[in-house]
Amino acid sequence: MLFCNTQDLQTILNILYILNELLTVGGGRRVGVFVSKGGTGILLQLVLSGSKESPPSEELMLQLHSLLAKVGPKDRKFGVKARLNGALNVTVNLLKQNLQNHKLLLPCLQVLRVYSSNSVNAVSLGKNGVLELMFKIIGPYSKKNTSLLKVSLDTLGALLKSKTNARRAVDRAHVPVLLYIYQDWHRNDTRHRHMLIRKGVLGCLKNITNIKLGRKAFIDADGMRILYNTSTVSTVTKLPKTQSCLCPCVWLPVDDVVDESDDNDDVETENDTENEEEDKDHHNDDIETDINKLRPKETHSRPFEELKIYERFFLELSEDFQVMQDRHPFVSLSQRPIIVPTAQALPPKYPTAAPLQEECHLAKGEQPHPEASPLAPAPTPAPVHTLDTINITKDHDGCCDHSQVRPQPVLEHYRQPPLLAGGVAAQQGGGAEETLAEEWAEEEEGGEGAVLEVPDTALLLPLHDPDLYVEMVKSTRSVPQYSEVAYPDYFGHVAPTFREHILERVYGVQRTKIFQDIERLIHPNDILDKVVYDLDIQSCPVIDDGESLKFNSQFESGNLRKAIQARKFEYDLVLNSDINSNHYHQWFYFEVSGMRVGAPYRFNIINCEKSNSQFNYGMQVLMYSVQEAISGRPRWVRTGTDICYYKNHFSRSSIAAGGQKGKSYYTMTFSMTFNHKDDVCYFAYHYPYTYSTLKMHLQKLEALRTPQIYMRQDILCETLGGNSCPLLTITAMPESTSNDQICQFRNRPLVFLSSRVHPGETNASWVMKGTLEFLMGSSPLAHSLREAYIFKIVPMLNPDGVVNGNHRCSLSGEDLNRQWQSPSPELHPTIYHTKSLLQYLAAIQRAPLVFCDYHGHSRKKNVFMYGCSLKETVWQTNISATSCELHEDLGYRTLPKILSQMAPAFSMASCSFVVERSKEATARVVVWREIGVQRSYTMESTLCGCDQGKYKGLQIGTRELEEMGAQFCVALLRLKRLTSPLELRNHAHLLDVESDLIETRCKVSRSDTCTHQGYYSKQELTLKIYTETIIFECETN
């Protein structure tokens, strides 16, 4: 009160001195309290009243502006208050009158910097000549007043964020001035003591080049060459990221739809908002604050009569077991040609069974050589195979088309396959039937033909069958009508036994890559710019001059749109967007051939969209070598060096950026050397898992069904692309047909699982594979689990997206995991019918005990869960609610807690149970709110690796992902016992382990020691989970 009413100058100054000391020592918390009590307005009023004195008190203005410089950044409305109050003009006039008074000039500039964070203020200050004032203050190299110069550059940078001010700077030829100042400071600041000043100049240039006129002025002033030369001279300067932002923005080298307004950046929308820095206590505005939306719905949105049609998917709830259960296998519907891989060469002189047997031994615990590498060639050199493809056709009657089919050649591999689809068609460039007949006769006499080296992986991959996979491909429908099969999908993948560590990036590699990109702009004549692959031009010839790599992505789940040879061993790659969408560029899967052994190839994927990636934190791309596969090592391995991810100079159109202008793409770059001549290699974002692979696995799983297992496979619906969406039911058969047993069977709680709603999250399918294999297993745990629950599983919610190589969307061009609130039966059939199944269960009072949707996460490590909690969401907001309103059972935390104690890849610390507005239409939130499932989760698996637990420092592989799926099953069994303690008596065989407990601990310990931190065969994995669960139960009971 004294502060507001006193007219005594000395009293006011004394109060200001005290306030300055308090706010300087107290930090942000005290400043926040001062702002909340209206302190900002009082200070601004004092500035206005003090300016009316003639002349104004210099000490008063000094103290007031020093305080405002501290208070302003913490007050979101500071700029608006200053403009409305009139203090803004006072500060500007004070600045003009005191250009030589550095003592007063510094706090005035600090306050002006905060004023300028408001876009309306920035434009107003530019009109009042403040921009020219800044250029009077900044200047060439000088050891004097460096602090003043630093603040001036920051203020100028804030002003230049306004496009109006940026145009004004271009019109007044300030760009060459800034470049001269930068050069002068770079030349004289040899000890790099004033890096912040040079960074401030670059920040001003960056803001000017946000407009087209600024970029043109920058190029005309030879800015690229100046910055490139100054940056490469110094090894200390850390400015390549800033310099890359100054590159002239260009469009991607593809024919995309571009909004014409993207090139018109002369129009500026002036919003009266602050551009303040985000502090640590930043409030998450995405958290749901409406308690009514956080409560489960009490009424069902659809009448039961509409839902009765889904009764046929729940035969187990009324099954009397008087008739055999119906099963619905997939039916092959397609008769189009399918190309399957082979290798045309003479039979190998060296047996390839030895390396495969070595893999078998290693999988059971032997340690490989410490220097073993994923790409190391076999000890015995295998012959070089020239790889090709074989075309398989059928006529409309399903018989062989003899006009195109050659007699079956000799197929040399470890197990003789049946004839593939009726015959093999030769790949001839033309020729008469007589020529073909002569060639056939020569092959008959020579006894040699095309050799298909198919590794015998039946022991290691019991669910994989190359011939069956080809049959599954025939009924898979794609938009491009793919007729080829990728080698990795045909051969299969055996998880490597060696550890794949998270890659440590060499310091400075990103800087080097950015400089190499900038060299292209400075020396454009050194760039080849040769298109070697282009899906947009169907007639684009495949260049086979021996100087260029050959690319291909025209197979299931493939994604590569264009390949451009930039330098001799460097290629720019452009990914396809999701079908019927202009964005979501992340998933890639393509084939490369024609490589030179030992050459240092660099691949740049230039149209990535996310602002950051795990590729910057140790994640590597995956590669599959066909030469390695036919030598007995069919596997995906992590590979690539000099991997980094950074913003590039390619502009995204506003259409592709969701209406936002000025967005840029990002580059993911990696280097690679190949070890085999005439190899065919595949690169992928993550371990591919195609829709045809799923169908093959389901058919193999169904063949494993024993009389004790109840398994039914239904077709839930057809997708927009005409592919079937499978629905699985798995539980245990009743022990007898007595009423008690049938009643127990029908009343088992349900668990509903789904996966792969986002096609690019292939790790979700590998986790689901581990879950399905465990459920169909013969272990006591699997049997108990089947007796405990009825599992309803939709293993692939987005088959069309998977088939066509999408990353996130279905053929409707929409993210299906944002359609759960109001799915369309026409546009989102899999979501509509899956939700209908859950609505039917809720209507008959049989809502699932657990719902879990498997996903993959591209920006975090480990495996974790997202759940839903009213209480935890409210705690993150400022909502005032009574304890009655927040009453909630904490059971939603039980399953994640169990997983954190059992699964080595799972991290409880990464879990979250907060409901956000942007996630209200996801499966997890809708099933929680509308179906009333308390334990409704999204389980996220990392695409990179783990930073905690047993797998710390390792990249995640299919073995760990499948293990996670199995561990999830075991956790469900533990959850059942915790929620139904009386049923523990039914599982006494799992608790009677006291005499074997110590011995079991010793065995598990020895196993961990000899298997490289937890790499096990399938049998050992089941035993390990079984024993660890027993130990866990005994310790917790």
A few lines on this structure:
The protein has 1037 residues and is of the alpha+beta class. 38% of the residues lie in helices and 13% in strands. This is Cytosolic carboxypeptidase 1.
Describe the overall structure.
The strands form five sheets. This protein has a seven-stranded mixed beta sheet, sandwiched between helices. A six-stranded mixed beta sheet has the order 5-7-8-10-14-13. The chain has a five-stranded antiparallel beta sheet with strand order 6-9-15-11-12. It has 37 helices and 22 strands. The radius of gyration is 34 Å and the shape is globular. The protein is an alpha+beta fold. The longest helix is centred in the C-terminal third of the chain and has 22 residues, at 958-979. Helix content is 38%, strand content 13%. A hairpin with a 5-residue loop joins strand 16 (709-718) and strand 17. The chain starts with a helix and ends with a helix. Mean pLDDT is 79; it is low at 235-240, 273-283, 324-337, 342-450 and 983-1016. This is Cytosolic carboxypeptidase 1. Keywords: Carboxypeptidase, Cytoplasm, Hydrolase, Metal-binding, Metalloprotease, Mitochondrion, Nucleus, Protease, Zinc. Its EC number is 3.4.17.24. The active site is at residue 940. It comes from Oncorhynchus tshawytscha.
